[in-house]
Design brief:
370 residues, alpha+beta, Aminopeptidase, 14-stranded mixed β-sheet
């Protein structure tokens, strides 16, 4: 059973989940809390527990807060040892996972309690890609006297007003409207069609997965980034895909020029939004702008299913800006004793130069997908 700990706020009971079995038992409540908080895909059990099971190292550290028995706050974390330091990071650390703690509206104090528990035992909090609107550690709480926050990146967002054609008709979408029009004309001139297959259950996923792999392979060969369907990451990605389509939390779109697969998008499906996780295209088909054509299909699907926004997630690229209406920031938040954080910063600098130190137990998480 989770261990219940005392808190200065007697209305709340806290617990630290340290085993996968306990975390999975919590999954239904966890997902319900994420829905109530409009939480993103990386703060949910599907992604967080797949990452932990397939890629995680150290100790699981899912911190929960309850009020009158109801789960009202949760932080999906894990703990690593860096020499003498205890370092708490998000589940999904190192994969560009934009994460936030989940705190039920009306229970702001539960967020403070949550971070006090996370910072216990003199843990250093090292939280990358925090959603700027998420409940964050704040200075002045016990164990959190020193908190810093620095901008990291941006996540463009499309606010849906209708289907793809309605979005393209907006004055601000002039450039991408022209790109789509030119792509369609080139296809017509070549006597080719652009078709889309959707995978939203296990059978349709298995049918398109070989095509997704093919596009990923050729895209990586031409422009290496991070092949999440190969090597050490393959099991993690396929777990998210298979469990996600089975639960209705993942949608895979594959675009074809004629019979050939040329582009794919892997999309998380949230109650009121979609979020684009991984997308790659075959450079041979670049003259047909397959990514933009597939984006049209994704917007049509989102509108048809009552979604109000499309989160393009990490990376403020030109491609995303062509489509986006706004963006939110991600932050790097650190908290803990200054001396301990200086040690952590030194280790990070050494590892950034390709050196492994004897004080680090070896965080082998992959780099951010570009």
């Amino acid at each position: 059973m989770p261990r219940t700990m005392g808190t200065s706020r007697s209305d709340y009971a806290t617990a630290t989940i340290t085993t996968v079995e306990e975390a999975r038992d919590l999954a239904e409540e966890w997902s319900g809390l994420a829905d109530a908080c409009h939480g993103g895909p990386f703060s949910r059990p599907l992604y967080a527990l797949a990452w932990w099971t397939e890629l995680g190292q150290g100790s699981l550290l899912v911190v929960t807060v309850r009020h009158e028995g109801r789960l009202v706050a949760l932080a999906p974390l894990h703990e690593r040892r860096v020499g003498p330091l205890r370092v708490a990071r998000w589940l999904g650390h190192g994969l560009g996972s934009v994460t936030e703690a989940l705190v039920l509206p009306g229970h702001d104090e539960a967020g403070d309690v949550l971070w006090q528990v996370a910072a216990e035992r003199r843990r250093v909090l090292d939280l990358l890609e925090c959603h700027e609107d998420g409940p964050l550690p704040r200075a002045g709480l016990p164990g959190l006297r020193d908190v810093t926050s620095e901008p990291r990146d941006a996540c463009p967002v499309i606010d849906l007003i209708g289907d793809a054609e309605a979005h393209l008709a907006l004055p601000a979408r002039k450039r991408v409207r022209r790109t789509v029009r030119v792509a369609r004309r080139r296809l017509e001139e070549a006597g080719l069609d652009f078709g889309v297959r959707l995978a939203d259950d296990t059978d349709s996923l298995e049918a398109v997965l070989p095509d997704v792999r093919r596009v990923f392979d050729v895209a990586e060969a031409a422009h290496p980034k991070q092949h999440l369907l190969a090597g050490e990451w393959e099991s993690f990605t396929t777990t998210v895909l298979r469990e996600g389509v089975a639960s209705g939390e993942v949608l895979v779109l594959v675009g074809y020029v004629g019979p050939d697969p040329v582009v794919f998008d892997i999309v998380f499906v949230l109650p009121t939004a979609t979020a684009g996780w991984i997308g790659r295209f075959d450079p041979v088909a670049s003259r047909f702008s397959p990514g933009h054509l597939l984006q049209c299909a994704g917007l049509d699907w989102a509108h048809e299913h009552g979604k109000v926004r499309v989160d393009l997630l990490l990376g403020d690229s030109y491609y995303k800006r062509l489509w986006a209406d706004r963006a939110y920031r991600t932050l790097h938040v650190e908290a803990g004793p200054r001396t301990a954080r200086r040690v952590l910063a030194t280790v990070a600098r050494l590892r950034g130069h390709g050196e492994q130190t004897a004080t680090d137990d070896g965080d082998d998480s992959p780099a951010v997908v570009g």
